[in-house]
Design brief:
about 400 residues, alpha/beta, Cytidine Deaminase, domain 2, Dihydrofolate Reductase, subunit A, 2 domains, nine-stranded mixed β-sheet, five-stranded mixed β-sheet, globular, binds ligand AOF, binds zinc ion
Amino acid sequence: MSGPTREDERFMAAALRLARRNLGLTSTNPSVGCLIVMDGTIVGRAVTASSGRPHAETQALADAGDKARGATAYVTLEPCSHHGRTPPCADALIASGVARVVVCILDPDERVAGRGVVMLRDAGIDVDIGVLRDEGEQVLEAYLMRQRMKRPHVTLKLAVSSDGMIGRKGEGQVRITGAVSRAQVQVLRAETDAILVGVGTANADDPELTVRLPGLEERSPIRIVLDRRLDLAVGSKLVSSARNVPLIVVAGDAAYPSPRERGEGARRADEGQNSLPLSLQAGRGGDYAARRKTLEAAGVEVLNADTVQDLLTALASRGISSLLVEGGARAARQFLDAGLVDRILLYTGPATIGEEGIRSPFDRATVPAGFSLERAARYGDDIFEDYERDTGCSQA
Ligand code: AOF
Ligand code: ZN
């Protein structure tokens, strides 16, 4: 059996680049890249289609046609072995007559989990596994997190002034970063399944949280607002656009649990699953139910979750693999306190805000323990830093 070569790494790198293209577009499926290579020439290539199907391999094989016979297939994820919404890709590879398959990452999906490789080998196909595994772990990090930890991969994005503020009290959006940083955040949104803010930020800034890059609008992530009392303004851009881009409002204790309130969370109103603690409804004079109806009539989904972990579990069970927490300070703290942030993207702008600023949970000098700097860059006058946490769940 032939082992992996430098050429294998080159083609796998190309397959991974292909896979990156559809990140954020294929949920609940991972974005997978596949190349079919014959005598050093790419004869077929594809990435998982939007919404997750068809899978990469079947499209790449169709692209290659007869040229697949005797060729090598490069796939960033183990070909599937299960009859899901499409037949197994392992069968398609076998039927195509490819001689060899090079796999980057084994698929942890319990329906696959090594069976794809067994099927290929049983059919007499050479299989090499783990080529460019580290890079593959990065490209697939959100999908792998959901499969292994049953929660989405969480990225916290913060834009902080040079004196450690994220905004100004009583004001809406304050420009902290420049055009390049802001464009980068748009790309980030496009690659993410869901984006989350607290209701304070939602009501103060009235953001739409959609992707506004020409040609990428369809990649707008699901929007989520932590809003335990359903205070989100009904006339907000978020609510007004809920019929076009899904909006989930998270009531319940996952939205702003204070130690005092946490105990009250156990007492549930008799409203079925999606209920608020009785005490809070009473506090709002009973108009909670009316606000909920209004939101739902506007196409908003109201979801109840008691803890941040519960919220993440619920999101993962819907197939959401990546979550971008965009603010404000309180929402950021909640995720940090729960130990549920995997990556921090910190943008530091040159301006100072001063006394009337809203203090960031941290700045460059006080990044939480357990995160290490992976990458830094200058975007115009801004400093960009990418911190990763070792989640301890990488493939052995
Ligand atoms: C592949 N190639 O391009 C992708 C795969 O719901 P289904 O039937 O589409 O199956 C989803 C599962 O398929 C997903 O959890 C993962 O295991 C695999 N994704 N497999 O062979 C692909 N995207
Ligand atoms: Zn497949």
